[in-house]
From TrEMBL:
Function: DNA ligase that catalyzes the formation of phosphodiester linkages between 5'-phosphoryl and 3'-hydroxyl groups in double-stranded DNA using NAD as a coenzyme and as the energy source for the reaction. It is essential for DNA replication and repair of damaged DNA.
Organism superkingdom: Bacteria
Segments forming domain BRCT: 604-680
Catalytic activity: NAD(+) + (deoxyribonucleotide)n-3'-hydroxyl + 5'-phospho-(deoxyribonucleotide)m = (deoxyribonucleotide)n+m + AMP + beta-nicotinamide D-nucleotide
Annotated positions binding NAD(+): 83-84, 137, 197, 333
Any single biological process term in GO: DNA replication
EC number(s) given by UniProt: 6.5.1.2
Keyword entries, A-Z: DNA damage, DNA repair, DNA replication, Ligase, Magnesium, Manganese, Metal-binding, NAD, Zinc
Family, similarity comment: Belongs to the NAD-dependent DNA ligase family. LigA subfamily.
Gene: ligA
Protein name from the UniProt record: DNA ligase
Active site residues according to the UniProt entry: 116
Enzyme class: ligase
Length: 680
């Protein structure tokens, strides 16, 4: 990137970031997620680091917070409320640690680690233990007077608690505090400032939204919007009706010496505090970050990272401030579930059913713990809905094990060089015409013998029959050589067909043929999957197998009979009927039988778990996910790939994905692996 290109991009980024910051901080609304905004800010920060001459006083990287609203009185903070520098990886964290060690000219100091609560930061001023004023961060120097609203939050004491003698004595023993601190705590005379986060617990957020939805009123997008909006209400009665909470993370330096002691003092004088721990070694800090990242879904409040602060107050002050952030503290953010990136191209892929799917190639971006380079655009209607163009800066979403997708376009960052995405009139693989089927929004290749369709159907059958050692490249080669044209042809392969091909020999050819011959017996659900019936996946195939028990009965099923089956709606039912009406498909089943394929008899299904729907997330230690599914189905239960109100149980293994979070929000019962095995 040239300096001129960087200057133009930086200016665009400043304008867009400031626009979204104004929406969020002043108008209490939000168009993009925190993760997407963080990504834009990080891009601007990197540009300014690369080209220092681009740094301006009005840059979003050089300021704190937003403008106070005129409807509240303004309060000047006794000490500036700084924001923190964000880091997004272990490498960035280590770089920060190395920098402050050089400035401090020593390495033997420790840190205090705190969960970064996703809420609204406020400053509380107490005089002789009585709450006098409360203010939002505002622009860092001047905030909004929200005292009356803060007084409605029960978690915030209107009068500080004076620790008893035994507690002060224990504090002396544990931390060797001075007599002056002990005397102060015994009376709490004088003026003192406490800072912390106003937030809303998960269960209360969900409950409030359910009530609003039932009333037909607008629900809240996220908990921080609710916290900010509630604190900025003109009528304290509205704030009082909201289930707000508070955790403290800072107290004036009264001689306590460390952040750790400060947190203990906050507890003693009546505050809930952010979860924290002291650490010194890099490995311990990394370990704690990973521990919190895994455990955050189980916390009763939202967090978006870990705050890492130099524990010693004197050293913290000595390190000073760089730009608008203190050197001695950072926020190590969790991998965002949303980030921004640029679309570099769009390609259309043909699947096993002939459906054309547009897939965007994007500049590599780190989101939800992985580097993403591609994202689906689903169909032409989605492209039109998003208004997306090649060259656009877009919002990329990926949560847990969800496939990456583009959910928004930042049109204000357009330069005029963006290119519209063309919708193909011909198949990109075989050049045949494409068509829409009825009211279907998807495009399909009209050529049943399209190379890509043949390849994907064969690959799909390979997976269904659990044939090992036969991948996409080999199948592509066999199709080009004319020895494979359909899934049935897999079972006609001979050693002589393969051994003379480049890259193969007698041994490898024999291994492939023997592996295929060993997989001629298959269950009915997997055989249904192998047929590549449009809209029929693994769960639906099992439901159909359970209902009809034999492939010939399924082939003769009527539309009304299929619709009655669990997990089968009208669209799926019509796909099944249309599939078996086609003579080519009927012939394929006969051909499978002629090459020796045997469908195992359906085992008698127990009714122990009948009517119960399970969702699996994470890895199980004692059995594979496929084994777990088979055990559930053998007992009459259903397995679904997504969580809904109809889900009875979510089985959570190690490193569960976003399904666990959704289950908690919906109040679905969550089973540990041990509890799951007990049910079986």
């Amino acid at each position: 990137m040239t300096k001129n290109e960087a200057r133009k991009r930086a200016q665009k980024l400043r304008e867009v970031i400031e626009y979204h910051r104004y929406l969020y901080h002043v108008l209490d609304t939000q168009e993009i997620s925190d993760g997407a905004l963080d990504s834009l800010k990080h891009e601007l920060y990197e540009l300014e680091q690369r080209f220092p001459e681009l740094v301006r006083k009005d840059s979003p990287t050089q300021r704190v917070g937003g403008k106070p609203l005129d409807k509240f009185d303004k309060i000047r903070h006794r000490h500036k409320m700084y924001s923190m520098e964000d880091v997004f990886s272990a490498e960035e964290f280590e770089s920060w640690k190395n920098r402050i060690e050089k400035i401090a000219k020593k390495k033997d100091f420790d840190f205090y680690l705190m969960t970064k609560i996703d809420g609204l930061a406020v400053s509380l001023i107490y005089d002789s233990g009585v709450l006098m004023t409360a203010a939002t961060r505002g622009d860092g120097m001047i905030g909004e007077d929200v005292t009356q609203n803060i007084r409605t939050i029960e978690a915030i004491p209107l009068k500080l608690r004076i620790p008893n003698e035994a507690e002060i004595k224990q504090l002396k023993k544990d931390f060797k505090i001075s007599e002056s601190i002990a005397k102060f705590l015994a009376t709490l005379n004088g003026r003192i400032e406490v800072r912390g986060e106003v937030y809303i617990p998960k269960k209360d957020f969900d409950k409030l939204n359910r009530v609003l939805k039932k009333k037909g009123e607008k629900t809240f997008v996220n908990p921080r919007n609710l916290s900010a909006g509630s604190i900025r209400q003109l009528d304290p009665k509205v704030t009082a009706a909201r289930p707000l909470n508070f955790k403290a993370w800072h107290i004036d330096d009264i001689g306590q010496g460390t952040q750790e002691i400060g947190m203990e003092i906050l507890r003693l004088i009546g505050f809930k505090v952010a979860r924290g721990e002291r650490a010194e070694q890099i490995k311990d800090i990394k370990s704690y970050f990973e521990h919190i990242a895994k455990k955050r879904e189980k916390l009763d409040y939202w967090i978006d990272g870990l705050v890492i602060r130099v524990n010693d107050h004197e050293l913290y002050e000595k390190l000073g401030v760089v730009g608008k952030t203190p050197r001695g503290i950072i926020a190590w953010k969790f991998p965002p579930e949303e980030a921004t990136t640029k679309v570099t191209s769009v390609d259309w892929f043909v699947g096993r059913t002939g459906k054309l799917t547009p897939v965007a190639t994007v500049e590599p971006t780190f989101v939800a713990g992985t580097t993403v380079t591609h994202a689906t655009l689903h169909n032409p209607d989605e492209i039109k809905r998003l208004g997306i163009k090649i060259g656009d800066t877009v919002i990329l979403t990926k949560a847990g094990d969800i496939i990456p997708k583009i959910t928004g376009v930042l049109e204000k960052l357009r330069t005029g060089s963006e290119v519209s995405i063309g919708v193909p009139r011909k198949c990109p693989v075989c050049d045949s015409y494409v068509e829409r089927k009825g009211k279907n929004i998807d495009l399909y290749c009209a050529n049943r013998k399209c190379f890509s369709m043949e390849k994907e159907r064969i690959l799909h059958a390979v997976r269904a029959f659990d044939i090992m050692g036969l991948g996409g490249r080999s199948i592509e080669r066999f199709i080009n050589e004319g020895i494979l044209t359909s899934p049935v042809d897999l079972f006609k392969l001979q050693i002589s067909d393969i051994k003379n091909l480049d890259g193969f020999g007698e041994v490898s050819a024999k291994k492939i043929v023997e592996e295929i011959a060993d997989k001629k017996e298959i269950t009915l659900p997997k055989f249904i999957v192998a047929l590549s019936i449009p809209n029929v996946g693994e769960e639906t195939a099992f439901a159909l197998a359970r209902e009809f028990a034999a492939i010939n009965k399924l082939a003769k099923a009527k539309l009304e009979d299929l619709i009655k089956v669990s997990d089968v709606g009208e669209i799926v039912a019509k796909s099944v009927v249309d599939f078996f009406v086609d003579e080519k498909n009927k012939r394929m089943i006969t051909d499978f039988e002629s090459v020796g394929i045997k469908i195992k008899a359906q085992a008698q299904v127990s009714k122990k778990l009948q009517g119960k729907t399970f969702v699996l997330t994470g890895s199980l230690d004692s059995l594979s996910r496929d084994d777990a599914k088979e055990k559930i189905r053998a007992l009459g239960g259903d397995v679904s790939s997504s969580v809904s109100k109809k889900t009875d149980y979510v089985v959570a293994g190690t490193e569960p994905g976003s399904k666990l979070d959704k289950a908690q929000k919906l109040g679905v019962r969550i089973l540990s692996e041990k509890e799951f095995l007990q049910i079986l």
